[in-house]
TrEMBL record:
Acyl-CoA dehydrogenase/oxidase C-terminal domain span: 230-381
Similarity comment text for this entry: Belongs to the acyl-CoA dehydrogenase family.
GO molecular function: acyl-CoA dehydrogenase activity; flavin adenine dinucleotide binding
Protein name, as recorded: 3-sulfinopropanoyl-CoA desulfinase
Length: 386
């Protein structure tokens, strides 16, 4: 693994940092308070290649590598976590799966519009009764004599659901086969039979619109199947491996923003005649924050590097991705917690962004596989036991 970044990687990091500092961070409080979807900023990110970082240029993307994705995601998340959530879904969960398993027609139709930022994509796996147990889905796609599928059912907690034009949907086509009876479909939300449900009133990442979606006799054509029939669960798990690198990067960005705000504060805030950063207890917290942040970044870069290697040589990067997500998400939550504590009353006030970092950090321990699921993945890979 090479720890030196290429000119291209540093370039996209710089572009992401500039947009985050000039456009995203200044509008973050407004979008968090109102829950308004940041469409204008997302369009800007798309115009600069950040909605399709690893998407080849022939499909409208930047044609970069997984390391570039991590570097850009950290910068965007440091500006605002909600923006990075939208970027992560478009890059990791939507474009990634179609590039790996889609037909040429599907790549041209669905990936290009999303990578260029002209449309928004979403990923629909979770249902009201099934979170970590993804195989317990009730959304069904019944195959007809003419080869089409009639889809009925409900999905929940769909990031970008209220604004998505296209969705990667997972539905049960053969309940008797369990996980092997799940198929992935490309959904056009403009077609009859698709309905958006209530928007979730979330604790954090409030500008990344989230809602339930429902299918009522929605007809999917045979060419709308992503990959092969019955391979949906395999596709979902592979896509989530990539998604976990995105969420780890997001967590690092949140943690870094909280850490940098704290560094500035402890140098300026005085108590008992000296900066509070001179107190040993505060210094211990700063040291631990820095160690956790650096460890999370290095593990996430390792996972991204491994992802790049598997794309060249085959293999998996599930363990590395799980380790990165678990470490980074728990580091972000801990750093944000300590940052609020060090800031005292001001950390609890909405006059400063610390309380937003605290709220935003929590979701990184939950979505795209809870911390408990990450520990299961890691332990099973290490022991070989199921």
């Amino acid at each position: 693994m090479d720890f030196g970044f290429t000119e291209e990687q540093l370039m996209i990091q710089d572009v992401a940092r500039r947009i985050a500092q000039e456009k995203i961070a200044p509008s973050a409080e407004h979008h968090d308070r109102t829950g308004e979807f940041p469409l204008e900023n997302i369009r800007t990110l798309g115009e600069n290649g950040l909605m399709g970082i690893e998407v080849p240029a022939e499909y409208g993307g930047a044609g970069m590598d997984p390391i570039s994705y991590v570097l850009a995601m950290v910068e965007i998340a440091a500006g605002d976590a909600a923006h990075s959530t939208i970027v992560s879904v478009n890059n990791s969960l939507f474009c990634n799966g179609i590039l790996k398993f889609g037909t040429e027609a599907q790549k041209q139709l669905y990936v290009r519009a999303i990578a260029e930022g002209r449309e928004i994509g979403a990923f629909a796996l979770t249902e009201p009764q099934s979170g970590s147990d993804a195989t317990a889905m009730r959304c069904k796609a019944v195959k007809q004599a003419d080869g089409t599928f009639v889809i009925n059912g409900k999905k929940s907690w769909i990031t970008s659901g209220p604004v998505a034009k296209y969705i990667v949907l997972f539905a049960m086509t053969d309940p008797d086969k369990g996980a092997r009876g799940i198929t992935a479909f490309m959904i056009d939300t403009a077609k009859p039979g698709f309905h958006r449900g209530k928007t979730e009133p979330k604790l954090g990442i409030r500008a990344s619109a989230t809602c339930e979606i429902e299918f009522e006799n929605y007809v999917a054509a045979a060419e709308d199947v992503l990959g092969e029939e019955g391979h949906g669960f395999k596709i979902a798990m592979g896509v989530l491996d990539a998604g976990r690198i995105g969420i780890a990067s997001q967590a690092i960005g949140i943690g870094r923003a909280a850490y940098e705000a704290t560094l500035s504060y402890v140098r300026e805030r005085k108590a008992f005649g000296q900066p509070i950063g001179a107190f040993q207890m505060t210094q211990a917290k700063i040291a631990d924050m820095k160690c956790k942040l650096d460890a999370a970044l290095l593990l996430t870069l390792r996972a991204a590097w491994q992802k790049g290697q598997t794309e060249k040589n085959g293999g998996r990067f599930s363990n590395e991705a799980a380790i990165a997500k678990l470490t980074a998400s728990e580091a972000a939550m801990w750093i944000a917690h300590q940052a609020v504590q060090i800031h005292g009353g001001m950390g609890y006030s909405k006059e400063m962004p610390l309380e937003r970092y605290f709220r935003d950090a929590k979701i990184t321990e939950i979505y795209e596989g809870t911390s408990e699921i990450q520990r299961l993945v890691i332990a099973r890979n290490e022991t070989g036991l199921r």
